[in-house]
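MFS transporter
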Amino acid sequence: MQKRKKNLVEDAKFSSFHMRLTIYSSGGPFLDGYILSIIAIALTQITPQLHLNATWSGLVGASALIGIFIGGFLGYVTDRVGRQLMYTIDFILLIVASLLQFWIQTGWELFIIRLILGISIGADYPIATSLLAEFSPRKQRGTMLGVTLIAYYVGSTVAYIVGQLMLSIGPDAWRWMLASSAVPAIILVLLRLGTPESPRWLLQKGRRTEALGVLKEVYGPDASLDDIVVPNAGQAKTSYLKLFSRGYLRRTLYVGLFYMAAVAPLFAMLTFGPEMLTSYHLFEGAGGYGAAIISALFLIGCVPALFLVNKLGRRLMIIISFAGMTVGILLLGIFPNGPVGIILLGFVAYAIFSGGPNVMEWLAPNELFPTEVRGTAVGITTCISRFGAVFGTYLFPWGLQNFGIGPTMLVGAAVTFGGLIICIALAPETTNKSLNAASSAYSSKDRFSRKQQRSLHSSSQ
């Protein structure tokens, strides 16, 4: 049997460059978790001060998610103008919006500013994750992209702790809480300076000399353009329609729908964590610390998923994860009044098993779509997911007020079970494939020749 030729990009060792890029790319998810969670503590002061009813409380809580929905469409811009430029611009917008929150006086002002915050975060998802995926070796791709989701829960946990501590400042503590997201954003902008452009994107645009220069800078003098084979380089066009073509529609539906089913209950629970815990009579008077513990459980759940994503495979892991999540949230819905042990078991099961979908949320769209639409795909599937998250977050306080915690969580269980059915029906397997092979939708039924299929397969070996 012929020995597979080593590819300097796909088979590269995990280097200090990969480490830095993973950390910098995790900045967006960290700030996402921070911004979406700090509002949960801030709302305990904002609601009475700005006289917010349940409708406005839900709108303020969901505003950043609506912005992320809008920002996801900027993935198309990322595919057109490049990853590197947008990598910094979006954080500058985030810094300005973070600081403006300090001076707001009405609920609608806060809604608009947090909408802008969400747009900048939503734009960063396709930018940072596409750049990370296109530099990552095949064996580390799942871990590197999975780490970005861990960063989300780190940001969420930190936000709850910071928010609870800041409450001692006084009745205007919420202004300092919301503006505090500017601090990590400024640090990340400075760290991201000098990050190279994706050589795959450069090659796709026909900029071969620049692509080769980046390859040699990152991987050494032996690197060549043969190490990043890009089908139809310089010819394939960025287009929304490709995501809904025969070859990719199934993948678009899979990623968007499982992503939506995962985050709709989750974001509502994180955004209104203190209120939810009060409904269960847990951590009363210290809801911020209780919410931090739950967020930390979500973080812990991501750790085994980082290792299992290659061991079990993408498909099996996400199916098992959704099954476990469904059982966990079902317990929370069936036993709203205790016993406490059952309630805690429900929280732990839901949080731990959610690690699988969390890791796959950015790994799947980056693996399943080619270079010319990778950013677009991440953006569009993020938009689909946030459509559900917006409604879940907006309706959560309304459900608590009108039906109570038990029925509200049963609705979340139904949504999660729907995610399980989606994964069983649509989830593909891409474990250990090169980025080219994983993102190819070619099959014997398509109009591409068998020669093209064999060529693509050999490049992935």
